[in-house]
User: What shape does this take?
Amino acid sequence: MKLPELQARQVWTIVLIGYLIPAFIPLGMSPVISSGTQNIYDTIQSLPPNSIVMCGGGGVFAFDLESSAGLIAALKQMSKLNVKVVFYPMWIETMQFSKYCVDSARVDEKYGGPWKYGRDYVILPYIPGNEVGLVSFLNDVKKTVSTDYAGTPLTQLSIMDGLNSYKDITVWICAQWDGVTILRYVTGEYGIKVLWFAQSSAYSAFGPYMQVYPGKIYITNGALGGAQYEKLNDMKGLGHAALDSNVVFTLLFIGFLVLGNITMLYGDKKVKT
Amino acid sequence: MISPDPWVWLSAILTICSFSLLYGDNKFFRFAEHTFTAVVIGHNVVMGVFTLRDRFYLLYTGQKLLLILPLILGIMVIFMIWRKYAWLAAIPMAIMIGVSQGIIVRALVSTDVMGNVKAVISEGASIFVGNPADGVGTLIRVAFTITAVFYFLFTFAFKSTTSRPLEYFRTFGKYVLLIFIGIYVGNQSMQNSMLATSAINRLVRNWLGFG
Assistant: This one.
C-alpha cells in the first residue's frame, strides 16, 4: 500500500481550518489561575487611592498583541479603582500599542468609561535611549520628558503634577517584549514592584527573575496568562480565543507528529524489505 | 454583519494577502509586504520628527538652553554619510556608547550576575524547609542552574581522577540546556499560534462580524 504524501499547502489548509473552527464556534476553555497571575491581580486590587501606575516598556506591536489580552483586562480593572496610569513608550511602537489597549479596554470617557485623558491617564511620547532614557526618567521625570505624545506640555496635564521621580511610582506594569530592561532597572536598581504580562517566549527566558526578586516581580505566561487575567476580571477576550485555538493547534500538532512518524517508520520498513 | 469601516476592510485585505504566502509566493503577498515596509519606514520618519519636537520642547520655549548640546551632537551623527567628515560622527557615537554601556554593565552585574547568585544561594538554603513539594521544585531549580552554569564554565576536557564524575555533571548541564531550549521553542510556537489567532479573530469578528 502506498501512503499518500501531504503537500505543504494541504497542511496549511488543515491548520487554517483548525484555527477557524474556534473562531466561529468558541470551545469555551477555562484556564486555571496561576499564582503569578493571582498575585498580579491582588497587587493591582490593593493599590492605594491616587497611586501612580507606570505602564510601558519596549516592544513591537505585532508581538505585544499577545500581552494585550492581560493588559486590557488590567486596564479595565484599574478603571474601577482610583489610580492614575502613565504610559511610558520605550520603543516607537509602544505608543500606538498603549493607545490600542486603552481604546480596546473602552475605559476612556469617549467610550462611556470613567477615565479622562490628562486626569486619569496619559500617554507619553516615545522616549529614546532605552536604558539611558529609563534611568533618566526614573531620576527626574520632568527633565526627561516635557510633553505628552500629542505635544501637549505636561504642565497642562494634572496627572503629571504628582509624578516627579521614581519615588512617586507605586507599581510598574509592563506588557512589552523588552520587559527585562524594566525588571533590571525599575526593580533591580530602584526597588519598584513590576507586574509583567510577558509573551510566552519571554516568560520562559526571564521567568527566573521572580526568584531573584521574590515578592517584587510577578510575571504571567503569554496568552494563557492573559486568559487567566480575563477570567479574574470576569471577561472574555483575545486570551480566551487564543486558549481555544491553542487546544486545536496542539491537537493538530500531535496529529501531524503521529502521521509523520508513521510515514517515516513505514518508509524505513519498505527500505529494509 | 460585515464591517462598513474602510480601515477594517483594508486590514482584512492586507491580512489575507499576507496569509496567501502559505499557498506560495504571489503578487498579493508581495503587495502586502511592500506596503508594510513602506508604512514602517514612513511611520518611523514621522516619529523621528515628532520626537525632535517633543524632546526639544524646552529648548524652543527657552526654558532649557543646555539642550542645544544634545541637538548639536545629534546633528553631528548625520555627518556619518560623508566620508570626509565622518570623524565628526564618532564623537556623539562614543558618548552614546560610553554612557549606555556604563549603565547597562552596572545593571547586568547587580541583577543578572549577583542577583541570580543570591537567588540560588537563598533557594538552596530553603530546600529542606517547609512544604516538601516546594522543596523538590526548589531543588530542581538550584540543581539545574548550577549544572547549566557548570557546562558553560568548564568547556575544556578534564584530565584527572575526578574527571569522570565532573564529566557526568557537565553532561547533566547539557541536558538541562536542552530542556530549556525545548521549553523555549514550545513557548515560541505558542506565541506564533497566538499571533495567528489574533489575525484570524480580527478577520472573523471585526471584519465578518461573527462572534
Q: What stands out?
A: Chain B touches chain A through 53 residues (CB under 8 Å). Helices of chain B lie at 6-19, 27-55, 57-60, 68-78, 86-125, 132-153, 163-207.
